[in-house]
Design a protein that fits this description.
There is one protein chain. This protein is an alpha/beta fold. The chain is built from twelve helices and ten strands. It has a seven-stranded mixed sheet with strand order 1-7-6-5-4-2-3, sandwiched between helices. A three-stranded antiparallel sheet has the order 8-9-10. The longest helix has 36 residues. The chain binds 4'-deoxy-4'-aminopyridoxal-5'-phosphate. 4'-deoxy-4'-aminopyridoxal-5'-phosphate (PMP) binds next to helix 3.
Length: 380
Amino acid sequence: MPYMDYVSGCPVDERVIEAMLPYFKHPGNPSSIHSVGLEARNAMEEARGKVASLINADSSEIVFTSGATESNNLAIIGYATRNKSKGKHIIVSAIEHISVINCAKFLQKNGFEVDYAPVDSYGKVKLDELENLVREDTILVSIQHANPEIGTIQDIEKIRDAIKDVTLHVDATASLGKIEVNVEKLGADMLTISSNDIYGPRGVGALYIRKGVRVNPVILGGGQERGLRGGTENVAAIVGFGRAAEITMEEWKSEAERLKKMRDRLIEGLLKIEDTFLNGHPTERLPNNASVRFSYIEGESIILSLDMEGIQASTGSACTSKTLQPSHVLMAIGLKHEEAHGSVVFSLGRWNKEEDVDYVLEKLPPIIERLRMMSPLYLK
Ligand code: PMP
């Protein structure tokens, strides 16, 4: 039964579970100075090295967090509050994850000014408009590497050039393990990543903070993570994240090729259904993302009908699906409300096989036809 909702959640790889198991029982606190504490610290530091290698960073530049949301909070709120004497203007793109948008809104309520960089109909940040938004007092720009909902990949190197020497935070949650994520090549000063998106456990992520970049902690406690994130570290989860990073490093390239072939066949088949359109960029997109919209019908009814056939997909960001508002991402690329509502994201991952694509392409057309026959918007 094809699970095609890896963007909402990924299974944890068996090899990762195996690496984690000893640390569930292990009592060591990495801050204890005795030998058992030291064992936990060593395991954690080994994992930090693996996570750092995956993105071409130094171990000392990695702060473990509880996930991408917390990393985004630390990057944006932590950086803005620490550097407010240099300026109080920040820029985020219009299609950022809600955790970035809400941090920006929080800062706006607390004396900062925020601009939202617009995107074109493919979801690419408009570089000239971004460049024009940069001011004397701009201290931070936060732009995602790739969008989980429409799959579009940003030209971060060009964005880096456009904003000159302003500090750049990149949310690479959706791109890690799918395309190359290299902090040096990207020119990122801070970069958000998350464990579950590379088949590690949930509840752990990291923020890369380039040497010399100063941020305030947002979780205050006993000075763990070089004073940037208080609280006893989740050693088992961190070990799992490290193992997941190691596996990703070895396998991502061949895996991306495999996923891309499946994705292309899926998109080709989906677009054969009439009045169906691709969301996002046709080529500069994540290798595992097929985001489409079906005219005249609601994404939610498609998802539920697919589920009855054993296929799981999503209508967009699982994190905001409770609001019933059309996705801000689809609005920002210029879709009308009714177009945005008919969108479905198929996101592929490590355990999908070619047969899954065949199965979806067999089951979906009759579902779309049945739902359209019931739709008052469908007049054919
Ligand atoms: N950023 C992006 C680009 C995401 O796709 C997500 C959701 N996976 C997040 C941040 C937040 O991740 P989490 O809910 O795991 O904190």
